[in-house]
Amino acid sequence: MSLTITKRPGVEARPAAAGRQRRRTKGGVSIWFAAPALVLFGLFALVPLGGVVVLSFMSWDGLGTPAWTGLDNWQGAIGDDVTRDAFVLTIKVTAFSWLIQAPTALLLGVFMAGRQRYRAVLSVLFFLPLLFSAAAVGIAFKSLLDPNFGIGQALGIDWLAKDWLGDPQLALAVVLFVIAWCFVPFHSLLYQAGVRQIPASLYEAARLDGAGTVQQFLHITLPQLKYTVITSSTLMIVGSLTYFDLIFVLTGGGPGNATRILPLDMYLLGFRSYDMGRASVVAVVLVAVGLAVSIGLNRLSGAHKMDSQMEGS
Amino acid sequence: MSRTTSRPNVLAGTGGWLWLAVIIVPIYYIVVTSFRPRSDYYAENPLSFPAHPTLDAYRQVLENDFLRYFGNSLFVTVVSVVAILAVALTAAYVVVRSASARARRIFQVFLLGIAIPIQATIVPVYYLIIKLGLYDTLWALILPSIAFAIPLSVLILTNFLRDVPKELFESMTVDGAGELRTLWSLALPLSKPAIVTVGVYNGLTVWNGFLFPLVLTQSASTRVVPLSLWSYQGEFTMNVPAVLAAVVLSVVPILAAYILGRRQLVSGLTAGFGK
User: Fold this and answer.
1) Distance between CA atoms of B42 and B33, rounded to whole angstroms?
2) pTM (two decimals)
3) Which residues cross the membrane (chain B) (predicted)?
């Protein structure tokens, strides 16, 4: 699940009240109100963030005391085929997830923004996947896709009665589909909100000029949704770097290493092979790529908009 | 967009119903299978309505400690959400009410936190939890959950509190109310919609969280619902209806929250958007 907040410009533009407020905060009461949040956030988020960089230069089996090993972990990670494959696979999953989710979410968002009664009812149902935990979704799809007792049997279509999770190519396709099932609802909500803010007068003018539905979509809806597209895409791309629980439950990274993306590689290195140093190297790469993508796409969205995102669960 | 075209858009309609099928079929499958007798699972059409519907699967799950896991999840979620709201609201209050450079820097630290992917810090969090002697306790789930929820919660509450007219705060001060009093009897009631949004969103995230429980707990006494689904899957390998019954039970509280607060949840998920 992911969220987006737009920080509004003019955060500090309060010259009139500034003097009085400054005097009040000199008393020192106010600032301490933020202390509990700062301490908790610092201890359990900022310290681990620094810690992951430090641990990437250490060797630790999860039990003893970490010891310095310099660049060993980094050299090991670069020379490791499994991690390298995981890196390539992550890029692949990111690209395909975007290609599947972005158009689907955009079209659904436009659909959901319509005022027709049946569309409102459908929108309520479209939201349902957001309520399920990734563990629940993974388990449900695993049994639904069972070659012998799953959907292939139900519909009597041979094409559907495949060993979906046993074949490397198919397993990857299933993972992409299930990811879309989980996350398209959220992104279509963003698009729905975006579409509803487009002034109706634009459409009225276009209709007077004789523009059809498709033309209206291409020449009004799409350009007007530019920022929504950028923000939603940022969330999708950064989110791809964090898909863990769903794939862990659905395939465990298999068959073989066919669906072992970087977050899974990190978990398996750390908590199955007890090589926390190598796991930390992967984590640092994830943080760096995530930040780079966020900042890069933020530039696109203009100087006044600061879109931020959080991915998780 | 108010598209009141008289001509129905057939293509869009078809697409909409098609997506509905994609969404509903798996959910329908979960529900009908959970009512199917274990013996019929291998015989009946997986998407048919069970010929002999039964609650056996639910009974089995409940007999296998589901209520304890449910209680654990409830405890972790309620404590986390209350704590998140308390610390995030006070922090947002400082950001909005204080014009000092320090308050602005605090806000920037939180903004930075929004870009940190939780997964990437799990190894040091694990180390920290062991060092604090909290491994395999429910507090091992609560404390990091609070920490990672803070940035976004502060942001939503800050954006909301900014819209409260300054004069209201000032009149409280003129009346001699202290900061705590102003926070309690002005900021708190006024930001109720934002508090509901932050509460429901974080409740959903914490309730469904999987990575923290997987890494930071291990015994059955500290197991929470999402992890229990995974372990049921291992225990009941030949009993798919029971596993899916557990899935249904895991969604019930969230569904209840969704029905009660759908509007807040939806607006919360798209919070601060546009403009």
Assistant:
1) 11
2) 0.85
3) 12-31, 74-96, 108-129, 141-161, 236-260
